[in-house]
Design goal:
This protein is low in regular secondary structure. It is built from two helices and four strands. The protein has a domain of about 70 residues. Helices cover about 15% and strands about 10% of the residues. A hairpin with a 4-residue loop joins strand 3 and strand 4. The structure holds iron/sulfur cluster (2 copies).
Length: about 100
């Protein structure tokens, strides 16, 4: 005869809703990033359009060419464009990008 074992159900903590880059798949690094000042971005990461505008190159996966795909960290952090410096974690644009890249 089977015995009935009382089980303690672990109370799960609620999902962490805090917004941090650590828990983000570099959503903002899929955006177009125009180069409007000189910060020392290596030429190999730069694309120039037919009108001479310069922006960060993006690869076929949609991410910026300067993003390390393994760590999801910027490989040129000290030389990142002004737009990247001004993009603030947790602000409206950040939240919008995270929502847009959320898996269904
Ligand atoms: S700034 Fe926002 S969108 Fe960009 S990596 Fe951090 S959390 Fe993600
Ligand atoms: S330069 Fe760096 S911070 Fe800016 S989009 Fe590319 S990987 Fe992201």
């Amino acid at each position: 005869m089977p015995s009935h074992v009382a089980m303690n159900i672990a109370v799960k903590t609620l999902p962490d809703t805090e917004i941090t880059c650590t828990h983000c798949e570099a959503c903002c690094c899929r955006l177009e990033v125009m180069l409007i000042t000189e910060t020392g971005v290596p030429e190999r990461f730069i694309e120039t359009d037919q009108w001479g505008s310069r922006s960060m190159a993006r690869l076929d996966d949609g991410w910026c060419a300067a993003l390390n795909r393994s760590t999801l960290l910027c490989m040129i952090y000290d030389n990142r464009p002004l737009i990247c410096r001004e993009f603030e974690m947790g602000q409206d644009e950040c939240i919008t990008e995270r929502e847009a890249n959320r898996n269904p």
